[in-house]
Amino acid sequence: MSIRMLIVDDEPVICQGLVQTIPWESLGVQEVDMAFNGKQALEKLADQSFDLILTDISMPEMDGLALAEHIVHEKPDTKMIIISGFDHFDYARQALRLGIEDYLLKPVDVDELMALVKRVRNKIVAHKERKNSLLQDWMAEQLRHRLFHSPLSERIKEKHAPWTGRYRLLISEVSGYAYLQNTFSSEAFEGVQEDVRHVVEKTCRAYGMKHVSLFGHENELLTLVYNEHSDMLDDSKLREIWGDIIEQSPYPIQTISSSVGQSLSECYDHYQEGLILLDNVRGKGSGLFIESQQCFKETVDWKGLSHRLLESLLKGDESKLEACIHQVVAELLEKEKTFSQMVERCRSLEVALKQKLQERFPAKSFDRVALRLQEELELRKWNTSNVIEQLFLCDLIHLLGELKEDGQNNWMIEKMKRYIHKHYQHDLRAAEVAERHFITPNYFSMLFKKETGQSFSEYVNGLRIQKSVELLLNTSNKVFEIAEYVGYKEYKYFVQVFKKQVGFTPTQYRRMNAAQESREKQIES
């Protein structure tokens, strides 16, 4: 594993001499760049990453010590070596207390520098390998949970997750799996899936592609490939890598790739989408690689259907839910090539809806709801869309029954109120609250008015005025400051709303209260 290094010195001759005369590649340093002061180094660090920085301590604009302080706080994984003259040794010692890796005195001994860089490089590589190993284990566990154990009662929130980079999810199947199962002995057949995974992992490593591979269900190899910076996830590069995998695999395989994801919270949707796409290419030959965006556009808007059904469920209106299911089944029947594919789409939608409801309402027990459509159906008998539609409707009505228990709308409104109380000081809009809770703005407005007796704007204004009254009575802040604090950008509008609700302007209200307190004190004395 190679590293990237940045040399920082205000004398270009020294920088260029170090770059050109030392055989950096033999030390495991793949790339060496230069900067001629600390400020220039920070500019490079803003859009590039370096593993090791070799810097002089005495430079104009920003010296090496100031640079070190910045890097220690902003780039803690970046190692630093300081070069110091004798007169600046105290500075070097101060830098070491900051956590700098080591220092060298001028004039620099080349052999000593090479030995030090090699030692630090080995330390960096060891740290990266440990970090990558931990990240790989974490991602494998997240992948299992998000795909097969969702919703998570212990789900890690995204802001605490150690991975926020780009990824693609690939689903691979061995073509003719049943034939191989019948042909090989049970002992020989056990190695089929492992042989394929071995080829996938070996090829990914050869390309330097970070990855996690695991088996989902029988004959289903899931591979998550991820990378923060490079173009390794581009279609052309992924085709090249998977072309080698297909060529080296001892068995014919088909692979579907998701579009590029940015958050592991999207992983379940990519998985469901991939299952549909894989179903579309079965029987069309081995060695097939299809990007999900291209193939999916030719079939069904999975997310759109799922969202429509989820919205109908949350509204709690059975007649509207029935109409929505009728439309969805009709659309699936029109766009899918076979009846069995249409049934599988309905099943996948049910699973996705159940999972999304459980994630949103963890206090509920959607897992206990038995879904008739998920049972094995002999499609030669269950061979009309009307029957499938009725089964689908029956299942979703059961989910709706679980949703309505214990006044679910009240629970949702309380959740929305908590969000409003947390964000009322900002430019809060009804559309934002609706989007945060996965419902349409129109449905949000109707539900909020029904459950609270107030419109969204009436509720927010009431809350803001209540908070402003508290501040008027308990602080000496100016009225315009209070207006801004509670979320009003326009002072005149704040005064207008305040007077409408309280009966006085904010200034009048404060004076009246002060006068009242003064009279009470006089009476007491």
UniProtKB/TrEMBL annotation:
One of its GO terms (molecular function) is DNA-binding transcription factor activity. GO terms for cellular component: cytoplasm. Residues 4-121 form the Response regulatory domain. Residues 414-512 form the HTH araC/xylS-type domain. GO terms for biological process: phosphorelay signal transduction system. InterPro entries: CheY-like_superfamily, Homeodomain-like_sf, HptR, HTH_AraC, HTH_AraC-typ_CS, Sig_transdc_resp-reg_receiver, Tscrpt_reg_AraC-type_HTH. Keywords: Coiled coil, Cytoplasm, DNA-binding, Phosphoprotein, Transcription, Transcription regulation, Two-component regulatory system. This is Transcriptional regulatory protein yesN. Pfam families: HTH_18, Response_reg. It comes from Shouchella lehensis G1. Residues 110-137 form a coiled coil. The modification 4-aspartylphosphate is found at D56. Its main location: cytoplasm. It is found in: Cytoplasm.
